[in-house]
Amino acid sequence: MTAFKLAAVSAGLSKPSSTRLLADRLAEATVRRLGEEGREAEVAVIELRDLAVDIANNFVTGFPAAALREAIGTVTEADAVIAVTPIFTASYSGLFKSFFDVIDHDALTGKPVLIAATGGTARHSLALEHAVRPLFSYLRAVVLPTAVYAATDDWGTAGDALTDGLPGRIERAAGELAGLLAGHGPVAEAAVPEQVVPFAEQLAALRV
Description:
Rossmann fold; Flavoprotein-like_sf; oxidoreductase activity; FMN_Rdtase-like_dom
């Protein structure tokens, strides 16, 4: 049984980066949850900060440099993608958006994508729903229900009786991704498209 290929895309700009840390935590949790299902996974991490110049040049020349071409191949050939961006001005970073702009718009069709983001305060968390999720929905990816946002104050917290802390959100999202890849669970069932009955057949049935 072949190992799953996971591509973790981090758009963090600093080094070390909380965005990269969140990507690593999500990847580690997913690999562990898959291991509990008896499945193996290999993780390739893509640091977009190292590809910033290549991405800009690709827009000008129309051709990706070798490093960017390799990164694009890693994402498009992966079984699933973990995409993590810092939130700037209530949206994803320009570097994050630019990377997915240079990928063929059909390359992520049907591919599971776990979205996550980091930011200074919790008030930016809705950017995952109004900006990041629509981006991958437009690319026809299968976006996991749980999106993980990590504010500065979230690191090291355990949550309370009403909300999960960051570790709990990471575990829930990783469990959804592992379940989808393993081919069972409510997320996998929801991802199966319903059979569409042609309109002509529906009309014919009404006339009988």
